[in-house]
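Q: Trace token order:
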Amino acid sequence: GVNVLLLRACLALLASPIYLLSFLGIWEPFCRKVFFPFVLDKICVVHDKKSKKHKQELFRNLPDFRGPSGELRLLEIGTGAGSNFQFYPPGCKVTCTDINPNFQESLSKNMKKNQHLHYERFLVAAGEDLRQVPSGSVDAVVCTLVLCSVHSVSSTLREVLRVLRPGGAFYFLEHVAAEHSSWRYFWQQVCFPTWKLVFAGCCLTRELWKNLEEAKFSELKIQHISVAMPWMPIEPHIVGYGVK
């Protein structure tokens, strides 16, 4: 406990300019508009390379969840720059949502690259509040590296289940808390407050598999995997899908 607090204080000292900007109300808007989209772009390039095989595997059975009309209506929560588009099947109708509308540049670049999809609309919305999406109106919901930073995981999963049609599927790939007895978990605890501030509310120690198990999915497949990210406390991940 003491070690964690001591190291947290050292880290906060190193990041003191950011804490000061946050105190003055300058950091959050700057982070949302400039820093986070920029850094996320860079991190995503690395993360996409490392997780490509896992994503190909994960999204392989997406076509199985086409609706009765033969169309696949997919809603993505926290689309960001659209790094998942390449994995969606041709003809898929995509609704993009993100709480942060500042990814437009890289998003339109990815849309141009992936013209095998139909882009329905872009909604500025939080995962906990998808009221612009009618209940039971989509066949699949996708969420990657988003549940770490929503305000409420359980409300987000409730919304996921609401917008899915019966028999529809929720796909996820998220970084999670490490094994409690590990060094990795120790460092996650040390980095937690500063990381959360710097990376727009991202929480390092969420045990998201528990939230998923508590949600009311009729079938749930979860796999614990490791995505090696150099110098980053986000190696342990979970990947899988749940059926409504």
Remarks:
- The chain has a mean pLDDT of 93.
- The domain at 31-243 is CATH 3.40.50.150 (Rossmann fold).
